[in-house]
Amino acid sequence: MPAFPTPSQYREAVQFPEMAFVDPELQQATPEVDALGLPRAISGAFATVFVLQGRTHRWAVRCFHAPVPDLAARYRALARHLARHPTLPLVAFDFQEAGIQVEGQTWPLLKMDWAEGIPLNRFVATHLEHPEVLERLIEAWVALVAQLEAAGMAHGDLQHGNVLVAGEEDRLRLTLVDYDAVYVPALRGRKSPELGHRNYQHPDRSEADFGPWIDRFPALVIYTALQALRHRPELARRYPLDEALLFRAGDLYAPERSPLFQELAAITPLQPVVKLLQQACHLEPVQVPRLADVHQGAVKEVPGRRRARRQRVGRKARTGFERAFLPGLLGIGMLGAGLALMGGGTAGLAVGGGGALVALGMALVHYQRLPIVRRRRRLQRELAFFDELLERLRQQLVQVEQERRAFLERQQTLRQQRLEELREEALYDRLKYHFIDEAAQFEGLSHKVVIRLKAAGIRNAYQATPERVARARQLSDETRARINLWRATLVARYQHELPTRLSPAEELRLERYVRQRLARFDEERQRLLERMQAQQQERAQIAQRLEALPSLTFGRYAGYLLRICALPSLEQAPAPPAPPPVRESLPPVSVSLDETRPWWEQVA
């Protein structure tokens, strides 16, 4: 399958909605533009969003630049679920498998009703000094999460950018956007197409964690942050609300070593919920309690609290399986030996070998569920994800550079092309008033010939091009020659009236066009470099966190089960140092034009 279009290619296509979109409503809509007059694009990891305004409606159009597994099937399942639950806080959408055309090929898009509101983090930042507003926001958040759970579904990527807040301060309305990772019952058994924002998701979550409970951990993270900011708004100065609500991925990976967790634990009203969140970081995602129960105070401690402590590894207490493994294995061995001594050698070997295989299989299952193993697996997947994302960004950067060079290479022809367009427009203004009936008078064409020409769409001299005349039916070669001569005579008559050079206004218009195109290339290039720098920094943090995490092989775990060795401890792992800033060496491109020289001699 060919690579998906880049955000830059989508942007070029959306400039002409009537040609880009298949949907009639989108064809008639107008895209919102930036300062350069180009469609305003909001790019994410998997899609670029454009805002289009119709006569009476406004839409957000998501164009995908990375494949999402089973995209069409997932949105069809979500549409059927929303039909049964029409009051859910989601906006109406229409998934179109062949919705946009880019360079001759069609690609899927998601047409969504425009959702009014501002992102959650911006709303919180503007109401830090109004605890009563934050309290109402907390109540609205708890109600929204409960509504999703009651419908048996989960959003899959709860984070500040996907929660929009609207309405008056005394009556808030929350709306969820971005449905690529949504879970509904019809998707049971599938894997999650993405793992969501790292600053909100459970540190051990994997693609296999996909069920109606996947929102519980991020919902608890947001709830805890809102409660903390309601009590201590000054926290926003030390923990900026730009890419998170207080908590970062590092806090969730190692809450015991997190300065933020330590600071929040010292705030008396927050201690219960902070403790619950800290414990939840070490449970499996499915074990995290429901937010409604936490809010009502029904959960004082996370179920399996002892297990949460044990799962930090380096524990003194063993699980029931771990305590029973060695005695069970010895028992199976003794049973097999007993059967062999009683004359059942084959039966004894079968019992002993089969029991050992079953025990090893159970040990492997328990090993895969250990937090330290799940966490290493998650970090390794995140490294692979960022490597893939960085490679896509590099490819997009190369493509932008190629497009810029191609634009510069054809600068010399732009002026001539514009002059030809103006000459053609001037010729049209003069020939359109010479109707085909005039040719009949001068060239002796019959009335039937005139009727046939009009039927072919040739009504004046401008339309009577040799190509169109050649396609007209039931005309003799002599008739065609007469019509062509008539038109050529008129063209020669007006030749001296056609412009031979661009006017000063046209020169300025072309110069402005070139400046805008180059500025657009520079803006896109700089945006890609900034995204690459941010992603490189995040990748460096993940790599350092993975390096600091103790390694636990299945062999060592088997040795632990046989009481030969101890397990490594998450709590003993050193905290990874802060990564140095990663900078891209490519500088931004600047274009400076000398006012004393023509622009077309300078931009090349």
UniProtKB/TrEMBL annotation:
The keyword Transmembrane applies. Keywords: Coiled coil, Membrane, Transmembrane, Transmembrane helix. It comes from the Bacteria. InterPro entries: Kinase-like_dom_sf. The chain crosses the membrane at residues 324-343, 349-367. Pfam families: Kdo. Residues 376-425, 518-545 form a coiled coil. This is Protein kinase domain-containing protein.
